[in-house]
Each structure stands twice: as structure tokens, then as C-alpha cells.
Amino acid sequence: MRGPAAWPLWLLVPGRPAARAPGSLPLPVGPGLLGGAGAARRGSSGGPGGPGGGAGLARLLGLWARVPRTCRCGALAGPGAPPLPRSGLPGGPAAAARAGDEAWRRGPAAAPGDDRRLRPAAAGLSEARKLLGLAYPERRRLAAAVGFLAMSSVITMSAPFFLGKIIDVIYTNPTVDYSSDLTRLCLGLSGVFLCGAAANAVRVYLMQTSGQRIVNRLRMSLFSSILRQEVAFFDKTRTGELINRLSADTALLGRSVTENLSDGLRAGAQASVGISMMFFVSPSLATFVLSVVPPMSIIAVIYGRYLRKLTKVTQDSLAQATQLAEERIGNVRTVRAFGKEMTEIEKYASKVDYVMQLARKEAFARAGFFGATGLSGNLIVLSVLYKGGLLMGSAHMTVGELSSFLMYAFWVGVSIGGLSSFYSELMKGLGAGGRLWELLEREPEMPFNEGATLNEKSFQGALEFKNVHFAYPARPGVPVFQDFSLSIPSGSVTALVGPSGSGKSTVISLLLRLYDPGSGTISLDGHDIRQLNPVWLRSKIGTVTQEPILFSCSIAENIAYGADDPSSVTAEQVGRVAEVANADAFIRNFPQGFNTVVGEKGVLLSGGQKQRIAIARALLKNPKILLLDEATSALDAENEYLVQEALDRLMEGRTVLIIAHRLSTIKNANMVAVLDQGKITEYGKHEDLLSKPDGMYRKLMNKQSFISA
Ligand SMILES: Nc1ncnc2c1ncn2[C@@H]1O[C@H](COP(=O)(O)OP(=O)(O)OP(=O)(O)O)[C@@H](O)[C@H]1O
């Protein structure tokens, strides 16, 4: 915040400390003498520009990779891990309750473990109340800050009165020696100003720290709410947009309820005290001055509404620009391979240009608003001088009283400027808040962590699809499965084959319950998986895809990610599974061994190496059910052998569904299922299916090149 001492004396252009309006009048006393001036207009940093301003399964599972990196490693346990902090508060609901966070609490009918019902209690209330609800957990700090604010404001606002007295001491009787009176008054006032400055400093500190805590809590709540959403939500919502909401919008919203609120309160308090003092010093002059306030209020309301709408559009366009940048930077190899750098730069430039256009509109509105308030401020001063001069001439006012009045008028002008800044920042906060509330209050269409679990001892891992009909929510009119039925007995290996796009990866998505079928049932040991707790279900399933997604952390952390509680995994456990997965030799060859950081999405490793790390991760998870997607392209002979051997070890004793691309896998499978046009058209052993002369399987074998290794 700009320090008051840096403000020019003539500053009466409300909310524009840095710009002197042409022709504005110099005032006798500057705010620098009067302690902190919280009415300083906030910078517009939160506005445009922001604060500181054919591998289907891989694609599906890649959704998980959209999770921001910082949360992927270690901190975020896999399925089966303790649920994410409810209510977004680091300590979960208990902490929320401790913090008195009424905006985030369980609904009255919530069952234990029912995360879905956690929703902001403020839902349905006006947005302004929701904003204030955010500040509620910080009420003690904020109340203390308001106390210090009141103290510094009282001191600030008493200054003009005493300064007027000093002027009268000087002017009233120039022949008398008034030096001792003057020294006493000035020393006393210096002490009082010092107290005012200290109170103001404490207020700023408390407000800033509360603001950051509110933003942190808001970000945690939002991140938690985003991660709970069903996968279909991520099919429709773009990552960059969510990132923008998490960073820019939360900051804007947080600021509007703390620093801005504090400055608004200060300005409000100072304006009302200033107006009262103006009436106290000269009622007739005060009545005259305040006749200009109502027209200004009307302009402010119109301006505020406009700004609110504009902020919403600006934040949306900013989110789109972030989305584009995030996607292109994340896929820079593809951009480079196609030589599209310049095209992408132009695309980004057009998005940023649009944000700029909106910023220009905002600047235009701001300029008009602050120009009008500045002009009226200066006119007030001029008229006070005029009318005050006349009153002094008729001996109705002393020079000290006129000086006091002018200073109060000045403070009221500054405070009204502060109030208009507060109002515009609040409107911006409300504009940015709209989308945030939508996200925060969105209830996932699929339960996140509720439902039954099966008895671990009797759990077999038999899977069955019965008359399943399914279309992706993003394409409801295009059915992927129509009357799809398939049984995968416990402990058996079923190979799934079918033409590209026939829905093989979709089978895996449905088993992981990333989506629910439109009709029909998918059961585990005879229980409809919709009745089961999805987190528990996923903890029983391991997946290895042809393009495994690794996170940008160490190899050890990537392997430990498979465990229910990654933090409890020992180096020995990691070493052991890496050995079984034929991965430890190449890992140990890296200078930093298991501590080697693999780069974003594991970009620093080869395909075969990534697969073996994924196999080690699955081994550590030790699931009853395995869903595998074999690599379509052949690895070199050695890698091929090592991966295959690791996979064979991984498959032992589990229920396995494998999207097969290797002849050897198909031949070794207990059963082969042929998927075509949303149905299983053939089912049996490799040799039996091959013996059907017109069968789909035979045609597939002839058409598609299965890897012969
Ligand atoms: N998230 C999604 N939203 C909408 N449609 C999708 C989605 N994922 C896949 N599809 C569509 O569903 C159909 C089945 O896709 P799926 O990935 O299951 O096929 P596949 O048999 O695994 O293909 P491939 O062998 O090429 O990987 C395709 O038509 C595909 O375009």
C-alpha cells in the first residue's frame, strides 16, 4: 500500500493518490501529517492481467494427471487413503468447527463419511453474505484489526480539530508569547500521532495475514471441491480455467473481504466522523457541502454494477487465456513437432488482446468515475473556501475553525474516494466470486467416498457386466455400449480385443467407476458397484496403461504412490517391488537412483522404463483386480522381455482384464472376448475363436497386426 507520507498535499482527487487533477487546489495540510490513510485506492492488480496478477485408456487415466503437481506427490494418497480434508480446511471438519467456519459444515442429514453433503452453508444466500462468510473464521483477528482501525481513525480524525486549535493559538493573539503553549500542544499531538501510526501498522499486519489465511482456505476448499468432482466434469471443464480460478479469482475474492474491507471500514468511519466534525465546526457550511453527495452516490451505484459485470467477463477471458497457455506449454513437444509456435503465439495474443480490450473498458469507466469524484472534491474545497471566507469576513468563523473545516472536508473527500475504491473492489470481488461459488457449491454427480465395502476375507474379485448401455456424458447421443455383457471370473485372465474405438478403454473406465452406465449393472462379487464405496473399489484395482502417467517427483515417490499411505512406504519396499518389476537395474544406473526426478508426466524416462515403474507401483498396491492396457508398439527386444516378464509376475493370482495387443498374451489368456459395436460378439479360447471361418476374431487376426512376441 502506498504510504500516506508519499501523498501530495493537494490530494483531494478521491482514490487517486498519484494523479493530480489539472487545476486542483493545494490544501494547507497533507495527510502525511495525519497518520496512515487507509483510503488509498488499491491497485488494480487483480483485474485484467491477474494478481501478480488411439491410446484411449491412457487418455482416460491421464485425467488424473491434470491434478496440479504440488499435490500429486506424497501428499495426495491414492484410493483408499484417508479422504481429502473435508470442508477444505487442513484439519478437516473438526478444524472447520474449531475455526467456527459456519460457511463450511455438514448438512443436517449428513451421514458419517458423507463427503457429498459437505457444502457451503452459505449456498443460496446473497453473494455479499457469502463473501462475508469467508471472513467469519478470521473474525477475532479482524475484530482486533477493526479495534486498531478505530483507534487510528479517531486519532487521525481528531488531528484537524487540534491543528485548528494550534492555528488559533498562533493567530488569535500574535502579540502574546505563545511558544510554551505551542510546544506543549505540538509535543502532545506528536505522541498521539505516534500511537495512531502504531495502531495503523498493527491493523495492516492483522488484515494482511487474515487475508492470506482466507485466500488459503478458499484455495483449499476449491481444490478439494474440484478433486471430488466426477470425471465427466473434467471432460467438460478445462484445466487452465480451473487453475485460473484457483489462483487469480481466489486472490481477488480474498482481497475484497480483507484489505479492501478494512480500507472500506476505515474510509466509512473517517467519512462519518469527518462529516460529524464538519457539522460540529460549522453546521451551515457542512449543510452546504453535503448537498453534492446524493448525485455522486447514484453515479457510484451505476459504476459499481457495470464494473461487476465487466469483472466477470474479464476473469472468464483470463481463464480462457490461461487454459490455452497451459495446454500449449504442457504439449510443447507437439507444438514444436508441427512447427506451430507462431500460430500458438498469435492465438494466445488474440486472447490476451481481448482481456486488454476489457481492461480498457474498465480503465475508461474508472477514469470517468474517479475523474467525476475528483472534480466534485475540488469543487467542494473551492466552495468551502468561498463560503468560509465570507463567514470569516462576517466574524462567524475563526481562521482555525476554517482550517479545521477544510481539513475535515479534505478527509471526507479522501474517505469518499476510499469508499468508492472499496465499492469498486467489492464489485470486482463479487464478479470473480460468481464462478467460484459455482465450483465450491457444485455437488459431484457421483459419490466421492461413500457406500459399502466388501468383506476383505471373502472378497474374490469376480467381475460382471450385465446388459450395460452407456454413452459418454459429453456425447450423450452416441452410445458406446448397447446391451454389453461380459463375465470375468475371479483369478482368471481375460483378453479384450476389438477394433479401434470399439470401447475397450471404456470397459476399464466403467470398472474404475469413472462413469456410471445408463442402464444395466456392473458387479463385483455379485454386488452392483454403484452400491460400493468408489474409493474402496479403486483401492482393489490396479492399472497399468501403455503410456503410464508419472508425476514430476522422484522414482521412489512415483512407486510409493501406489500404496494406501505413501508416507509409510519404506525404501526397502520400494526396492523390492522395483526388483520384481525388472526396474531396479536401470534405476540404480541413474546417478541419483531412486531419487531421480522423472520430469513432468515422466518425460525423462523411456516408454519401457515408465511401464516398469508403473508395474512396480501396481505391485506395491497389490490389488486383487488388474486392468491392463498392453503397449501397441513393440519395445526393443530386451525391454519387451523385461516388461513382459514383469507383467506376468504382476498378473499372478489376480483377476485380470487386459486389452491385448500381443499374440502371446491372447494365447495365454484364459478367455478372449471380442468387442465390436458396443457388444461382445465372440467369447472363447484363442484356438476356438480362430476356428470360426467367418468370425470377427478371425477377421481381426487377419486385419490387425498383433505383436507376435
Ligand atoms: N471422454 C470421452 N468423451 C466422449 N467420448 C469418448 C470419450 N472417450 C472415448 N470416447 C469415445 O468412445 C468410443 C470408445 O472409445 P475407447 O477409447 O473406449 O475405444 P478403444 O476401443 O479403447 O479404442 P483404441 O483401441 O483406439 O484405444 C470412441 O468412439 C471414442 O471417441
TrEMBL record:
One of its GO terms (molecular function) is protein homodimerization activity. This is ATP-binding cassette sub-family B member 10, mitochondrial. It is a multi-pass membrane protein. Belongs to the ABC transporter superfamily. ABCB family. Mitochondrial peptide exporter (TC 3.A.1.212) subfamily. Residues 143-428 form the ABC transmembrane type-1 domain. It comes from Prolemur simus (Greater bamboo lemur). Pfam families: ABC_membrane, ABC_tran. It catalyses: biliverdin IXalpha(in) + ATP + H2O = biliverdin IXalpha(out) + ADP + phosphate + H(+). Residues 79-116 are annotated as: Disordered. The gene is ABCB10. The chain crosses the membrane at residues 142-164, 185-206, 285-303, 363-385, 405-423. Residues 86-98 have a biased composition (Low complexity). InterPro entries: AAA+_ATPase, ABC1_TM_dom, ABC1_TM_sf, ABC_transporter-like_ATP-bd, ABC_transporter-like_CS, P-loop_NTPase, Type_1_exporter. GO terms for cellular component: mitochondrial inner membrane. SUPFAM superfamilies: ABC transporter transmembrane region, P-loop containing nucleoside triphosphate hydrolases.
